[in-house]
From TrEMBL:
Pfam families: DnaJ (PF00226), DnaJ_C (PF01556). This is DnaJ domain-containing protein. Keywords: Chaperone. InterPro entries: DnaJ_C, DnaJ_domain, DnaJ_domain_CS, HSP40/DnaJ_pept-bd, J_dom_sf. Residues 4-66 form the J domain.
Length: 304
């Protein structure tokens, strides 16, 4: 009895290759024997239907002769073709003496499918900024099997990869031949690792440059000071110039991200301590008396 492969996959006879592949993958995921909803017999039937309809040549034969097209016997279908042996007809077309080769044929041998490289897999990897600037190792799970074949198993295997130092947000790293399996002896596809950087509590990134806010006291800003600056590769001792204003930027060269590293920028933030005791209040009043002529809101006189 001929099976309706289109009905098994739930597609129309005019379905495109993409529609057939999508339908198969959805049903295979549902009925795979390893799944809770698995059904081995149903999965086998789905795979049989996909194997035929995903191959243009097999699909054409199926559309003409049904699911028994591979077992055409002597005398043809229903005694047609003048009693000719249907298997011989196929042999003449594709086997001995035919287009595929054999004695006197054009090809000089049986036609073989060309090797085809497997498809690439894309895997996102999350890194801290410290890992991005120093490099890191990760073990990731990749899918096994042929992506576009009924042998696609939905199983995974772990592989260890090295993330080089200096990677950037959205950067892609290619791991050769660790992707989906090749077809007909072709090489495996690659694994494409896409970098995603975690947000940091202290640092922020703009392209290759790293920014950090540095809180200082008013007297450090006014008189100058030496302070420790945090970077992604440890602390750096820097001098705060006397008279530094809030919002000023200081550069630490080469402490950013990238293969050719960007810079780290230190943004000064002046923090004013509260006046909570009588002595502290008196100190602020003394400052106001001695420096009352200073008005940060006053615009400077235009230069003439």
């Amino acid at each position: 009895m001929s099976k309706d492969y289109y009905q098994i996959l739930g597609v129309s006879r005019a379905a495109s290759d993409k529609e057939i592949k999508t339908a198969y993958r959805k049903l295979a995921a549902k009925y795979h024997p390893d799944k809770k909803t698995g059904d081995e017999a149903k999965f086998k039937e789905i795979s049989e239907a996909y194997e035929t309809l995903s191959d243009a040549e097999k699909r054409s034969m199926y559309d003409q002769f049904g699911s028994d097209y591979q077992n055409a016997g002597a005398g043809g279908f229903g005694g047609g073709f003048g009693g000719a042996d249907f298997g011989d007809i196929f042999g003449d077309m594709f086997g001995q003496g035919g287009f595929g080769g054999g004695a006197g044929g054009f090809g000089g041998g049986h036609r073989q499918a060309r090797p085809r490289k497997g498809e690439d897999q894309h895997v996102k990897v999350m890194l801290t900024l410290e890992e991005a600037i120093n490099g890191a190792e990760r073990t990731i799970n990749v899918e096994v099997g042929h992506k576009d074949s009924h042998s696609y198993s939905y199983d995974t295997k772990p592989i260890k990869v090295r993330i080089p130092a200096g990677v950037l947000q959205d950067q892609k790293i290619r791991v050769k031949e660790k992707g989906y399996q090749g077809m007909n002896g072709g090489p495996n596809g690659d694994v494409i690792i896409e970098i995603n950087l975690q947000k940091h509590t202290d640092f922020r990134v703009e392209d290759k440059d790293v920014y950090v806010d540095l809180p200082i006291t008013p007297w450090e800003a006014a008189l100058g000071a030496k302070v420790d600056i945090p970077t992604l590769k440890g602390t750096v001792r820097m001098s705060i110039a006397a008279g530094t204003q809030s919002g000023s930027k200081m550069r630490i060269k080469g402490r950013g991200l990238g293969k050719e590293p960007g810079n780290q920028y230190v943004v000064v933030q002046i923090h004013t301590p509260p006046a909570e005791t009588p002595d502290q209040i008196a100190l602020y009043e003394q400052m106001a008396e001695q420096m009352g002529q200073y008005n940060p809101r006053e615009k400077s006189e235009p230069v003439t």
